[in-house]
Design goal:
With 224 residues, the chain is mainly α. It is built from six helices and no strands. α2 runs antiparallel to α3.
């Protein structure tokens, strides 16, 4: 069978549920990025060239980014459940969805444990303050998120190569490299910008994978 993924038959009672779960993953990336972009334009004192996006969780309107992390995480997790339902055969059918699920949980983690103030944001915050436990716990989230996403890219790339979908395979490898790129700039000018750009690429990739699988599931339903 040459289709990219076997989908549940249309007559199966959970077929529609699977597609709705996948659509949650489709929405998650654009929603997170749109809400974040809106805050970049409106939050006083935030400089995307110096401040990590996580710092938007602080200050009077920090609840917006906290909710953004949690909602995106829940939606991506739902998308991972949908992937698990429709990826019923082939390489990566277990670890592909599982890694996306782990990635989703890191976003919820990042929302629950907010970062410490840094580099003058929020305004008037002390940059000399001692690290707090919630700040330390938050710092684990982006590291895990990127590592898990890189692993997911590799798993899906193998799956796509095996299926002859070389365009998707190359795209997945490219995303993995983009997620590794910020490591070159750690401690240097441009690191936060590279980190944000890599997040855009990674989050978008997950949503596009979910959309691809949702379309595949819909295609199989239409042929049933």
């Amino acid at each position: 069978m040459t289709a990219i993924d076997h989908a549940a038959p249309a007559a199966h009672p959970t077929a529609g549920q699977s597609r709705r779960l996948l659509m949650c993953g489709v929405v998650a990336g654009p929603l997170y990025l749109t809400v974040t972009a809106a805050q970049l334009l409106t939050r006083d004192g935030f400089d995307s060239a110096r401040h990590p996006l996580s710092l938007l969780s602080l200050g009077t309107f920090g609840w917006i980014q906290i909710a953004n992390f949690v909602v995106a995480g829940v939606l991506f997790f739902a998308g991972a459940l949908g992937m698990r339902r429709v990826m019923v055969g082939g390489v990566g059918r277990t670890w592909g969805p599982r890694l996306i699920g782990f990635f989703a949980l890191t976003l919820v983690w990042a929302g629950v444990f907010v970062p410490d103030p840094s580099d003058g944001f929020p305004t008037n915050s002390s940059v000399e303050a001692a690290p707090t436990m919630h700040g330390i716990l938050h710092s684990v989230a982006p590291v895990l998120a990127f590592l898990v996403l890189i692993a997911a890219c590799v798993v899906f790339a193998r799956r796509f190569f095996r299926q002859g979908r070389r365009g998707w395979a190359v795209y997945s490898v490219g995303v993995a490299l983009a997620l590794l790129a910020p490591d070159v700039l750690i401690g240097r000018t441009g690191f936060t910008v590279a980190l944000a750009a890599a997040a855009v690429v990674g989050w978008t990739w997950v949503s596009e994978i979910a959309l691809h699988l949702a379309r595949s599931a819909g295609h199989h339903r239409g042929r049933a």
